[in-house]
Amino acid sequence: MIVHRGLDDLQPLPGAVVTSGTFDGVHLGHQTILKRLNEVARAHPDGQSVVMTYWPHPRTVVSNDSQDLRLLSTLEEKIELLQQAGVDHLVVIPFTRAFSQLTSGEFIQQVLIDGLGTKKLVIGYDHRFGRDRQGGFDYIQAHQAEYGFEVEEIPRQDIEAVGISSSKIRTALNEGNIDAATRFLGRPYSLTGTIVKGRQLGRAIGFPTANLQVDDAIKLIPANGVYAVDVIQSGETYGGMLNIGFRPTVAGEHQTIETFIFDFSKDIYGEQMTLQFRAFLRPEQKFTGLPALMEQLQKDEQNARFRL
After folding, report:
1. C-alpha 279: how far from its chain's center?
2. Do 79 and 90 form a contact (C-beta atoms < 8 A)?
3. On the CB side of 195, how many CA atoms lie within 13 Å of its CA?
């Protein structure tokens, strides 16, 4: 997959079959559109599938309620997921207030025609574009002879049959509903970041942890609690149990993401690590002291190993 950062240095693509959207999480609903996009592109000798997405997320630019918005995928994660979906070209449009003010006609002419050389547009049944979401399938269909490209709408029943949205997945993760999030995404939800030093209290009670600092502040952190996770570090996968929260038993003052990696003893401070969420085990709770905490952690480890 070729990644294009903006339209300035991009020449119109021959046989461009295009779709657009934020694609946060690249969940099963998105994958329905991407599968059809690739099918249409492969049906033509010179066809190329093109995904146009936006960064930063449009809501962070145009919405007054975006301060608490957390995303399912960072830009780099989105790029990797779209590559795995078999897309030929990804165009990342810098989303600005000026861009948000393009009318539907300006968007079609400047972006789809002049920028990408669109031959066919594939969109979901409810997809809108342009200032105030003016444009959509009906608008393009009525003007496709004038614009010189075709438009195909993914049928409503195909999208609704999946019944998935990024907002539903965010809600599931905020509630600790890992099973639902995994089902909607079609894969485990993941966090990637850098391993940093903590207070090292876990080491003192026999449960040394790797503290993860997530690299992108806008990435969604699931609900506080204890989880069974897969841990990917330096190309190897390990089992682990994860605590997200404030560590009330030891008077923690800020949220931490701490993982006890099973059967692991390497020094990995400063290195990258990815956590894949497999199961929610229990909410975070305050214990009467370290002995009670240690007893519960032993039970958590048994439970986590069983769930992995």
Report:
1. 18
2. yes
3. 22
Report helix, strand or coil for 96: coil
Q: What is the pLDDT of residues 50-109, one digit of tens each?
A: 999 999 998 888 877 667 889 999 999 999 999 999 999 999 999 999 998 998 889 999
Q: How far apart are CA 241 and CA 284, in angstroms?
A: 13
Eight-class DSSP state of 71:
B
Number of neighbouring beta carbons within 10 Å of residue 262 = 14
pLDDT tens digits for range 246-289:
877 665 668 899 999 999 988 899 999 999 999 999 999 888 88
> What's the distance, CA 206 to chain centroid?
34
Assigned token pair, 43 = 């049906």
Alpha-carbon gap, residue 284 to 296, rounded angstroms? 11
Q: What is the dihedral of CA 299, 194, 173, 67, to 10 degrees?
A: 140
In this structure, what token pair is assigned to residue 285? 């709770």
CA distance 223 to 177: 9
Distance of alpha carbon 117 from alpha carbon 110, whole angstroms: 10
Tokens 């890992």, residue located? 178
Residues 6+ apart with CB under 8 A from 76: none
Residue 77 half-sphere exposure, CB side, CA atoms within 13 Å? 22
